[in-house]
Amino acid sequence: MNVMKERLPAKLAGHSLSAGRPDPLGATFDGEGVNFAVFSANAELVELCLFSDDGSAELARIPLSERDGDVWHVHVSGLGPGTRYGFRVDGPYRPEEGHRFNPNKLLLDPYAKKIAGQLTWNDALYGYDMNAPKRDLSFDPRDSAPFVPKSVVADPSFNWGDDKPPRIRRSETLVYEAHVKGLTQAHPDIDPSIAGTYRAVASEPMLDHLVKLGVTSVELLPVHYFLDDRFLVQKGLRNFWGYQSLGFFAPTPRYSAQGDLWEFQAMVRRLHAAGIEVILDVVYNHSAEANELGPTLAFRGLDNASYYRLTGGGRYYVNDTGTGNTLNIAHPAMLRLVMDSLRYWVEVMHVDGFRFDLAATLGREADGFDPNGGFLDAIRQDPVLAKVKLIAEPWDIGPGGYQLGAFPHPFLEWNDKFRDGVRRFWRGDDLMTADLASRVTGSAQQFDHSGRAATSSVNFVTAHDGFTLEDLVSYTFKRNLANGEGDRDGKDENFSDNLGFEGPTKNYTIRKARDLRKRNLLATMFLSQGTPMLLAGDELGNSQGGNNNAYAQDNATGWIDWVNTNPDLTDFVAKLSALRREHSVLRQRLFLHSRPRERDGVADLFWHRPDGEVPSKEDWQDPDWKTLCVELRTSYGTPEYAASDDVIFAVFNAGDETEVTLPSCPQGLIWEVILDTTLPEAGPHNPLGGKLIAPAQSVLALQRVPMKEDVE
User: Residue 23: which of 35, 7, 10, 41 has the closest Cα?
Assistant: First the structure.
């Protein structure tokens, strides 16, 4: 390797430069030094900037004079893990043509495995003069280095021991959506020194709770390095949810007690030991650099025209995401970055899957959304990613942005039709019984095509975005004033119902009705085909005070209240989870279509009116029909060797008390009630005379059991 001619300052005596390699991208420690490689197709000069251990002093600027294609690289001997660095990139500053190079702005490495420090908002962060009449067409010469975090050379090695991915089958999955800090910050039994951190998620109190609930997969809101938006900081708020990613390889240090990678890795290892998967909510559709008036922090300064989708000749940004910009996933460099990031989190950090924020953006090609587009094809053929769970949020605000059901196998998808339909049925809206039938059977209209499984539908009643379950039954209107946006943010239509009083109440009758409504909503989700997802805190009765968009509430509003809990509701959720595990008929891979099975000629699905008759077309369109009864069997398409005699009869009664005629049973068998939401603590019992009374506002589930002989 030839030694390069550039001389290093005296502060770096003992180090030497060489050409290095164009791969891997990022900063790689090889035992002798660090290889730096970064992509830029349109740059004229790329400089590596080395900083003091605390990041306050810039020690050297090293030109990356070696270029292979569009990758600039250099090797610096004697450097090791812990080295703080950044890049300065020079080139044309012609925003109207899409180029915004400004060497005065220190840039994060997109491949940085670790990032130290938080950004300090200052006008020097912007590539243009914010006070100039031409705004972003002007040029700002101030140095941004004192105000930006620094990339850090990391050694991600970790003693994984005998760690193995749980590899939970999709049919056995129960997703628990949680926020690292929100989940653990206020837990009274977690060591305060680690509360709100990765280690707290895998602490003994949390593991005990998750195991009790039967959770198989914890889905964490974004943990990639992200920023607090300037407008939030000015209002004294923070970006709590984390959907402003800037570092796609680096875990955010704000959830780390010591700022080390091993803390995240240790969390994963402990969760795996408990049989629980880790799924990350990832944001590859946009970055934290906002629109043309945003700061220059990484991608914009490295190669704006390559990393972003631009419009208006190049000056403006396509905004399919609603955040000001859209990353150009169709560009090879951006596609490579995303794929490298995903593989890194699987291979090095041992995560088990990903939930893709605004995934419609990732599947959009020049002519619109394409289920066989470049990114979706790339991820499906990748041998590393083929082993993990892939979950899409199937919408964005761009053209043709609603794509529920359009993603290819093996993607699962968040199903908002399930959320809204189930909420409306239990609110008592007319003509929702037919819709509920579709949701209970896996939303086949959306998902039963192209070999997709019934587990493709991620069924949820609540998620981080919207009301909690407690607030869903306590508020008719959102209460978002604390966000500082005049209550204009967040969805206006939540299909919620306060059941007689707006907000908290001590009225026993209302509280009892609310508790029943929560049990009905949860029971419907657990009894439905698909993959259930529970919002962390719903099992406790957690409230956000009616805030349905708590994205900026890094406080008691956003943190789960572990003190004022409803233990009976927690026990009920655990009961539902156990019921689902015990009955494979509730979690099938194949859809149910009332087709006769080869094994016995009996259909796999029967719909019933309360009187036992088959519903007519007129019944399905009857606004007064509020009691849906369904008999579920193993799907007609399930192979003989895997077939089960498990049968469940479920009743969803959003109306008044109703007499229900039970289906006939084979000789020697009888129906047994195993779930009654009006009697959540009741054990199994047998109705008499082939009929039962479905209480008003109730969910019932029954199984067939052998008839007990009378013993004298």
Answer: 35
381 lies in some domain: no
Helix axes 567-582, 508-526, angle to 10 degrees: 20
Q: What are phi and psi of 193, to 5 degrees?
A: -70, -20
Task: List residues bridging with 35 in a β-sheet.
Answer: 28, 75
> What digits encode the pLDDT tens for the residues 160-178?
999 999 999 999 999 999 9
Cα 695 to Cα 681: distance, rounded to the nearest angstrom: 15
The residue assigned the tokens 């995303």 is: 338
Residue 42 falls inside a structural domain? yes
- Whichever domain contains 602, its CATH number is 2.60.40.1180
Contact 468, 537 (CB under 8 A): yes
Cβ(416)–Cβ(423) below 8 Å = no
33-37, 40-44, 278-282, 597-601: range with lowest mean pLDDT? 597-601
Q: pTM for this one? A: 0.97
Alpha-carbon gap, residue 146 to 117, rounded angstroms: 11
Give the pairing type, strands 627-632 and 648-653. Answer: antiparallel
Per DSSP, the residues of 142-179 read: ---GGGS-EEE--------TT-------GGG--EEEE-
Query: Which CA distances in Å does 415 have to 345, 446, 447, 527?
Result: 26, 9, 10, 16
Cα gap 537→526, rounded to integer Å: 17
pLDDT digits (tens, 9 = 90+) for 92-140: 999 999 999 999 999 999 999 999 988 999 999 999 999 999 999 999 9
> What DSSP state is assigned to residue 498?
-
Indicate the length of the chain as a whole number. 712
**Residue-number span of the structural domain to which 689 is assigned:** 590-706
Two structure tokens written together for 25: 């991208």
In a domain, 66, yes or no: yes
Structure tokens at 342: 């995903």
How would you label 588-622 residue by residue, b for 16+ Cβ within 10 Å and e otherwise? bbbbbeeeebeeeeeebbbbbbbeeeebeeeeeeb
Question: What gap in Å lies between CA 268 and CA 180, rounded to an integer?
Answer: 13
243, 226 in Cβ contact below 8 A?
yes
Contacts of 667 (CB under 8 A, 6+ apart): none
User: CB within 8 A of 84, min separation 6: which ones?
Assistant: 50, 51, 52, 53, 55, 116, 150, 151, 152, 153
Residues whose CB falls within 8 Å of the CB of residue 223, separated by 6 or more in sequence, listed in order: 180, 198, 242, 251, 252, 255, 264, 280
Exposed, middle or buried by CB within 10 Å (0-12, 13-18, 19+), for 385?
Answer: buried
624 vs 608: CA distance, rounded Å: 15
* Contact status, residue 634 vs residue 593, Cβ threshold 8 Å: no
- Quote the distance between the C-alpha of residue 643 and its chain's center: 33
Which of 152, 187, 217 terminates a domain? The answer is 152
Residues acting as catalytic residues: 357, 393
Q: Based on the structure, what is the number of domains in the chain?
A: 2
